[in-house]
Amino acid sequence: MIYVNAAMLGLHGFDDRQEVLGEPAVRLVAPVDRERAQADIVSLFERGVATGEYEILRRDGSTRPVETSVAMIRNAAGNADQIVAITRDITERKTAERELRESKELHETFMSNAPAIVVVRDLDGRVVDANEALLDALGKTKEAVLGTTILDVFPRGDATNRALAHNRRVVYEDRPSTSQLKFSHTDGSIHHYTVTRFPLRNADSVTVGVGVIAIRAAKDELEQRVADRTAELKQLNEALLCEVLERKNAEFETRVFKEISDNANYSLAILNLDGTIRYTNRHAAEAHGYSVDELVGKHVSVFHNEEQMDAVQQIIRHVQRGGEFGAAEIWHQHRDGTRFPMLMSGLLLRDEKGVPSSIAATGIDLPEHKRIE
């Protein structure tokens, strides 16, 4: 190197140009990228210019991601004479990309475990996206459902009119709305649902659509409820409630995930492998007498007493070994000491390299008479 400016010195943590002048440029590249950087320099003799991303080495031994553009300078005779390099710090961009990946992981986790029908509608009531649970209930393909309205799926009647009124209320009053709905599945069975609708907002906080979560209502008998939920949760875990809100705008997708999970009428939590709570929705927090902010970073034992934790620890160890659990009745403890059961399911999550990273768990409230028992 025969010249470096002050910004370059600061990027690498040097104070004096004499510390780097006369040194080969690859000395400032982290060992992990040094061989590739050297190959890119050699290629300049053929291409003349090159751009790449590298980890650079700072004076204190730390590394930092940069984007570097280099060009060959030739003398009057046309021979290679010098190389000029322009380097830009991309730490903030890399951090944003990592945070976006983590947000998308949470979104995918929610969609893989949501024990409910999930639908997204635009302001005109047309279906923008829907998960497999709805498609299975209707016996239709996604292509057949996209773009349809409630009236395209259900005949007009009192129930349909009420559903339309709830959708309008969400749009015009800009607040969530909950109602009951009964409809027949493709196999002829009749099911009752608790339906929560809520506004979906863009980055400017403008409502651009309506999110819908429909969860099966409790049966008259606990045994029937447990049997139905067991089958439903097993189906959802195996079929992976796929890609609701797979939008081109990743930031919008992340906001939709948060709106859906935060407004879900069942419990959802993401745990680190050591049992600390990474994420929980409002339903889970309120069911135990806490706020969400009070729970993030706490150990999952905050949900249970010492006796209950024996069973919980066994489940965590089982999931950590690569398993999953579904439709298990787990007892919990409220902040005030009250004990209550929830129907739980969960699975092990892995990162993009296949390494176990966290545990996802969902919980459904059991009927009041089970709590009394």
Question: What order do the helices and strands come in, and which of them pair?
Answer:
Layout: H1 6-12, H2 31-47, E1 49-57, E2 63-74, E3 80-89, H3 91-113, E4 117-122, E5 127-130, H4 132-138, H5 142-145, H6 150-153, H7 158-173, E6 177-184, E7 190-201, E8 207-216, H8 222-239, H9 250-263, E9 267-272, E10 277-280, H10 282-287, H11 292-295, H12 306-320, E11 324-333, E12 339-350, E13 356-365, H13 368-372
Antiparallel strand pairs: 1-2, 2-3, 4-5, 4-8, 6-7, 7-8, 9-10, 9-13, 11-12, 12-13
Architecture overview:
The structure is a single chain. The chain has 373 residues and is of the alpha+beta class. The protein folds into 3 domains: 6-89, PAS domain (Beta-Lactamase); 99-263, 2-Layer Sandwich (Beta-Lactamase), CATH 3.30.450.20; 266-373, Beta-Lactamase (2-Layer Sandwich). The chain is 38% helix and 30% strand. It is built from 13 helices and 13 strands. The strands form 3 sheets. Strands 5-4-8-7-6 form a 5-stranded antiparallel β-sheet, sandwiched between helices. A hairpin with a 5-residue loop joins β1 and β2. α3 (91-113) packs across α9. The longest helix is centred in the first third of the chain and has 23 residues, at 91-113. The chain starts with 5 loop residues before the first helix and ends with a helix. The model is unreliable at 219-224 and 237-249 (pLDDT under 50).
